[in-house]
Amino acid sequence: MEEVKKEQKPSQKTEKKKQDRYYYASQWQLMARKFRKHKLAMVSLVVLMILYIVAIFGDFFAPQGTEQYDGSYVNCPPHGIHLFHEGKFIGPFVYGLARERDPETYMMKFVDNKEEIYKVHFFVQGAEGSEYKFLGLFETNLHLFEAEGEGRVFLFGTDSMGRDLFSRVILGAQISLFIPVVGMLLTVLLGLIMGSLAGYVGGWVDTVIQRVVEVVRSFPQVPLWMALSAAIPKTLKPAQVFMLMTLILSLISWPDLSRVVRSKFISVKKEDYIMSSRISGAPAVKVVTRHMIPSFLSYIIVNMTMSIPNLIIGETTLSFLGLGLRSPATSWGVLLQETNKLETISFYGWKLIPMVFVFLTILAFNFLGDGLRDAADPYK
Q1: How far is C-alpha 187 from the geometric centre of its chain's CA atoms?
Q2: Can you give the pLDDT at residue 26?
Q3: Neighbours of 93 (CB within 10 A)
Q4: Is the entire prediction scored with pTM above 0.90?
Q5: Residue 19 — pLDDT band, cuts 50, 70, 90?
Q6: Where in the chain are the domains?
Q7: Which residues contact 25 (CB under 8 A, 6 or more apart)?
Q8: Looking at the domain 177-375, which fold is it?
Q9: 23 vs 268: which has the higher pLDDT
Q10: Cβ distance 172 to 331 under 8 Å?
């Protein structure tokens, strides 16, 4: 009996420690614990981290720059890297490309010329014209991989101008992934400011803001995007278009968040700790930033994550229609402009590859938002 009691005591202590850690955990610790149990959200977080890391260091991962092209390889299908030649391992290499006419469609097509073998080297200096500034700090020409000599590595094929689609997808991610993030931050800032003013001050301020919200929400979203984007002068530089598109997306997206923030403020400002803070003479800014906003900060984080997919769709749609970014600037929407013809989809299906990345990114953000939404209520 004594041995059984001795065995039970350590287990009981361990269980008690677990319970203490749970009951004394902060809100953020409970959220993190619940989030880690959501497998889809964790996988999505890893996928998004990989996408953003590749986008940040896109010039290094992309074999070619946005302005590089080769007219000899127009509409070349995906041309991958091989490891074995005639059953022998010779390391990463690519075959040469030869052109011949398809006897059925009478169209020119590319085939592997197995008599020509070009080694693929990693961490090499790129071809002339592929120089870039690493994180905007210093100029370099180092790339992850490139084929030697006249060899070409077209992992995703090429477009109608002979530009490497793999490089353009990576470089396009720098815009397609970061415009929504910057737009989301502006949306949250506008939504918090307008919603907090309406909910905290009330009166005629609340009435005016709600009427503005109703007017903005009454317009169809996509036509309003198109109308505002059409007003962007075509002579502007890509960086200026980037900022204007971000501003347009955020100006249209803030009303939904402001309404939720307003309702939260109206319910929270009647709480005892808020009333005591106001009676004690605390400034309104301190009451809002130190007490009211932190009380529903978890909801804001979830809303931020869930709003990014809509902004990605908005940027892709505008660029696809030619109302957003335009070539030579590169985004996933710009790359999809070539798929607006049935002929292109029928014969050059690889040009739809950017759509796969749009779909994957939106799906990952949705799963991440679901995980954060579930984690925001740890006691459920």
Answers
A1: 16
A2: 67
A3: 19
A4: no
A5: low
A6: 61-164, 177-375
A7: 33
A8: MetI-like fold (1.10.3720)
A9: 268
A10: yes
